[in-house]
């Protein structure tokens, strides 16, 4: 891996992205120094800060160009102060959604793992969440987020109408189902597809196609289906029943925030977004914490960097294909929380919370110890 170092593009973005990504970057550098996985690192801009600087766009051409050339992108967050003031079409066409779409990132993997040590940080009962270990696969580049027509129109007499289109084509359904079945096979072999097929045509098609793929290509995987209202209840009532969940763009957005509470905090949720492989098997890959810019706590050095750090662990697993390093980093994060190190969001019954930077220190300490 030395002659041709893999290219890692780092984009802090907005808000707490500027606090959590530097901690993840320290971890990246730790791997270069201690495990000989060096990266060719560059930085990029995306978000409100970038818009304020350049005007017109949140996604400068330079970032877009680098994005296409990188093997993986590690991203912080977008949004916060000033986001609402940017015209909605500029946000759509030049923001995070545009980048997801341009890179063809159709599969968004959001692992939800409840650590025993953090059971007291959740508002849910420990016996309900103990042992939770699932991945929500959210379709990310289509559905109602991108469907046309869309808009707000004036109907006259002071009446306006807002509308969006939810749509999925069969190839879009097939590819996200297949990647989810493959993930299930590599884990506990259970897949649950969540949609709203009792009401929506889009979901009816989704269900028909999902059943066909289950029957014809993955008869060995235990396949289940839930309607999204019941599915959201089951997620909270008995989350341990789930191994892999696959769902559409908007349902996945909602379900994954709800699922965050199973882990105690949104600050614990990493994600990976992948495109289809090209002819060389290379996928565009985008790694980001699920939490967002969190403007209410930005700039205070209290945000939890673990989701960003765990997102880099996902990059080690899914892009750089170094599973030992991914395991090591995940063990280091677990070790850190097992030692009682807590940022405010996962403080639970602990007596004190550490800063973002101190949490980064603690993960590096755990890495050093586990690597010794
Ligand atoms: C997410 C976020 C984004 C989404 C926002 C920031 C556009 O909530 O990644 O879950 O809705 O996809
Ligand atoms: Mg969301």
Describe this structure in words.
The chain has 372 residues and is α/β, with parallel strands linked by helices. It folds into 2 domains: 1-114 and 265-372, Isopropylmalate Dehydrogenase; 123-263, Isopropylmalate Dehydrogenase, CATH 3.40.718.10. It has 13 helices and 12 strands. The protein has helices at residues 17-35, 48-54, 61-69, 88-94, 96-102, 126-129, 170-185, 201-217, 228-237, 249-263, 306-318, 323-338, 356-371; strands at residues 7-13, 40-43, 72-77, 107-113, 133-139, 151-156, 159-163, 190-195, 222-227, 244-247, 272-274, 285-287. The strands form 2 sheets. A 10-stranded mixed beta sheet has the order 2-1-3-12-11-4-5-10-8-9, with helices on both faces. It has a two-stranded antiparallel sheet with strand order 6-7. Strand 6 (151-156) and strand 7 (159-163) form a beta hairpin. Helix 1 crosses helix 11, helix 9 (228-237) packs parallel to helix 10 and helix 11 (306-318) packs antiparallel against helix 12 (323-338). The protein is globular and about 60 Å long. The two termini are 23 Å apart. The mean pLDDT is 95. 3-isopropylmalic acid (IPM) binds next to helix 5.
